[in-house]
Amino acid sequence: MLRRSLRLTLWLAAALAVGGYIVLSVRVLFDATPRGATEAAILLQARRMAFGQTPYPETTAGSGVPLMPAFPALVAPFVGQLGTQLWQPRLIGFLATLVLAIVAAIVVIRETKSATLGVTSAGMLLMGQGLEWSTPAGGGPVSLLLLLVLIGGLVLRYTEGIVGAAIASVLFSVGCFTHPSGLWFALAALVHLAIISPKRFWSYTIVLVLLVCGGQMAMSVALGPWFNFQAWDASLRHVQFEPLGILRYIGVEVLGALGVLTLATVLSFALPTDPWRGTPAIWIWIGIAAFFAGLAATQSAVPPAYALRPAAVILAILGPVSVQRITNHLSAWPGGTRGGAQAVVLTALVLQLVMLLAFTSPLMNPPV
After folding, report:
1. For residue 264, is it within any domain?
2. Full residue range of the structural domain in which residue 70 is found
3. Do the Cβ atoms of 183 and 176 come closer than 8 Å?
4. Which pTM was predicted?
């Protein structure tokens, strides 16, 4: 009875999270109020791309927005056909986040064999979008990056040959030109392959170097001399050591809002089977990359709104998987039961949903 009630609670909470995210995002989607420098920069680049101009003119060199060209390139066709509208980048970001939640659910279902944990993962991912943003439909480049990362992780997880490694490398390379933090994830996948498969490691590395380095040089020529400055130097110039930012990121956000998921992931390292080895370890390495990507984002004189987003998304996957692994291991001990283990998993996730609701409750009345 308890397990059935907990399972029903998780399904209802996930359904409410999906519905709430869609409702709040639609409210923001057609709002005429500009929301942040990144949104303005995306529209400026998209408009220039749509009319055959360089997306990196000298006049934007001082904006300080580290914007890569992949996301504005997706917005450009809308701008070319319909003119510049604020809903265009928001719509792409909104759709990318919804697909991201679906992919996360697929990952968790395949790893845990549990539809309940899968839909809960999707619900927590969407609830986590409200931890730092007053605009649920925003965050386009980061959402697109994380979608590419998860699909690349799936390819590495469920393929064995060098072709799969090369395909994953393409996805991670595109991520590098979607958002600067894509490099963290590309390197994490490289370390993962170095541990489990030297042959696949070299396939992945060669494609990554060719695409990232070759793409960087090609874009430097094709997009004008200010591409490197705007895409990379603009963010590096704002880097500063900010210990309070680190403390808030770890203590309040990662261990606070995402505490159950974080602790479950950390405790999984105590299991007899090393979580950083084997094909399932790709999610651990992606999680490590997400943590450091967010940590690096806090060390900016102009803190971006996406600092916690990578960790929130990846922990929505790692947390349920780790909780199940830990409880399954404990249930195998004398006196343990599978039913008791399942109840613990479901209870832990219900508690995490309560914590997320407490941290995101201001979004119930977003600015209009």
Report:
1. yes
2. 45-55+66-227+238-362
3. yes
4. 0.91
